[in-house]
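Notebook B, p. 112. Complex prediction, attempt 2.
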Amino acid sequence: MPLSGFSLALDRFGALFVVITAVVGICAMVFRLGYAGHGLASRTASCILPLFVTTLLLVPAASNVTTFLFLWELMAITSLFLVLTDHGHRSEVQVAGQWYAVMTQLGAAALILGLVLLATRAGSQSFAVIALRSAHMPEWVRSTAFVLAVVGFGSKAGAVPLHVWLPRAHPEAPGPVSALMSAAMVNLGVYGIVRVGMGLLGGGPAWWWLLVMFLGAVSAMFGSLHSATSRDLKRLLAYSTTDNVGLMLLGVGASGLFASTGHRTLAIVALVAALLHVVFHAVFKGSLFLSASSVQQATGSTDLDELGGLLQRMPVSGPIFLVGGLAIAALPPFCGFVSEWLLLQSMLHGLPSSNVTIAVAMPVGVGVLALTGGLTAFTFAKAIGIGLLGLPRTERADRAGEVRCSMWTGAGLLAALCLVFGVAPSLVIPAVVDSAGTVMRLHPTGALTHGWQIGLPGVPGMLAPGLLALGLIVCTGLVALTRRLVQHSPVRLTEAWGCGRELQTARMEYTATSFGEPLTRVFEDVLNPSRDIDASHVAESRYYTEAAVIHTSLEDAFERHLYRPADRGLQRWGAVARRVPNGSVHRYLAFGLVALIIVLVVLA
Amino acid sequence: MSTGWPPASMAAISLLQVILVMLGGPLLLGLMRKVRCRMEGRVGPPIRQPLLDLRKLARRERTRPEHTSWVFPLAPVVLVATTLVVAAIAPLLATDPAFGWSADLFAVVFLFLLGSVSLALGALDTGTAFGGMGASRAMTIGALAEPALLVAILALSVPAHSSNLPTIITRSLAHPAWLATPQRVLALVAFVIVIIAESGRLPVDNPMTHLELTMIHEALVLEYAGPDLALVKLAESMRLVVLFTLLADLFLPWGIATSPGPSHLAVALVATAGKVAVLGTAVAAFEVTVAKLRLFRVPELLAGAFVLAILAVLSALVVP
């Protein structure tokens, strides 16, 4: 029976991820109704997209190893097909597909090894049985399985250094697909690490979680730095996914660390913060990716240096992107603020503990969180300010119009959720607390929500997101009204000051590259930008330049220093290995003989 | 959390704080200008000059560059609104204004960040080189100041077991010995550096320059005129006075009203005004003696503040 080992069971932890995927899926499908880009209308893509969403919904419900791996692979393969939908038109798509295929299969290999190791040791492939027996397994088995799971799930989540497929696959995939991948599929990487580390293995020594925190911190900083300096909108969003996954892993790691040192309440709080960030990230990143695709459909480009002035030309999609951008930058009254606040609180309250590891890890965690927070605000000030505001930089951007109604409805639903969850996070927090308690098998000792407020059990002071939102709205209204009252004449339209030049053109404007330039200079040692100046001189004198062109580029350090050398090594090894089987039957017979002798020697 | 103060008096305190901040901000700027002029051997404009300037600007015509969207006129309003919210809930005069239980230090930081981001967006909306330049520089400095700021907050929150502002202040009043610990001193220095960077004072930004290549804040607001410019100027002075008051209350909390009576409030008003005036004078005097840093030296300053803040947290663990 091919499906005899197929077993599904949904607990509250898995259910959280199913609900997230369902919400993002519905919005992406509504968006897709009006979306006609990237060959998504082809028959193959139309068949595979529902299958992909189905696997996304089923993975968190898998309750044994075979089912899980089967669904996981199905998810990887269907998403690969979807990334490749436009391969006929652009060669970048094929390259992106190769990167994605290699990274996801490397991850899958690590996962198969880890989960099979656990299943054989437990004598059963059922997750429930593994969870019961894992406590009695030898330490090396548990640790090996955990590290393999972190590698496997980390590659799906896009954690550094396994993130390289994200900035390549996301810009090339069709809009709804990148939204689904970034807002729903990437979450499953975090799901897997929590499910294996806390669910199946029931927590572990501090170094496991320090490893997770370290990966999270590096991902958050690397991702935010690259998204701050990217000029392609979708690439920027892809790197910001790495950044946000880093924050989630930081929370998960802190939670495991607290659990391993016996701080049960804090462990729940940190995990709730991480899972809340998963929920909110799905909401804002979904709306951002979908509205970025609307921009792409309207202007034919995602290069920020070719956009501009879109807020006035796209009166619905523009504000949707604005809301998503403010939410991801953790600004009140939108949702990203709440999860970052909770993450900061869990780290703050972990500090007075006597444990030295925690005492050192938490301030560093707060520093990382703060730097990524600042960089994210920078990034989205750039994305919104250069992409949506100012003057259009190209003819196409100037002629751009609003996209079809179904497209902005899909993105707009998610943007509305950004505001709803930001004002009233207590709508989701109890469900997230339940879900975190289920996977950690702990009962929360105190509620995190008190009516509309959120606060930590036993700690004075709370956050009142609804109140802050109300205060902001009332004050904004009052100030605007006052300005209206003192104003005695209508607003006069003027020319912007440009040091006396005649006409304001888009060429005078800052571009995404120039906006990011100070930051690129500050982090020159990390980013290592390359800069090339081509100058041609007039014939009469070398001192006069006829034309000058400057090329700047920023390559991913991991791609350059880790993956390219590895790729070259593999190619070389392949070339050597290809010389061995040269087609001669005699040589193959000799191989057989040698192999037989070796087998006999080993058996003897 | 409530200390049982009558709600009416808490609301009155909030309102009083908002009014005092709106008046006190421009006066503080006037005082700082006066100090600077006197030290340079000039007479200087009267202290109430910034208030007069605001009145003058408010009466002028509103202008708006063509091509701008609704973001441009909205940005100064949001900037003022964020500062007003902070002024209403933060414990500036008394430890328990209305909704003081929600005055979380991290929330205050994110509210200020919202104001900065909206102003940067307003500047980018003009589509001029100056707007982009100011926005880019201001956001770069803001992003780099964030780690030092949040870790310094962490250092203050650890002994109080809370990042709630009234809690930190009441607990430091109860344990005065905390104020002299190394972590307080280190956190204080980090805070001062960050506040100077965030409020665009020397040596990070020169609020008086209009030289294209060096200006940061002035480039951001170059296109605003009339009432809009008045709002921006009001907001920046309010922010300065809120930050100075918070600094004074966090590191030298005596004088803040711990119970709601009018006499307590009067004492608190005098004490707070005195502390802020001393701080303002000190900063102005310091500004006379330094030159503006090159833009690319500022990150080093902020990195230094971050290291101090980390040391503050670590020493908080060594010396509890």
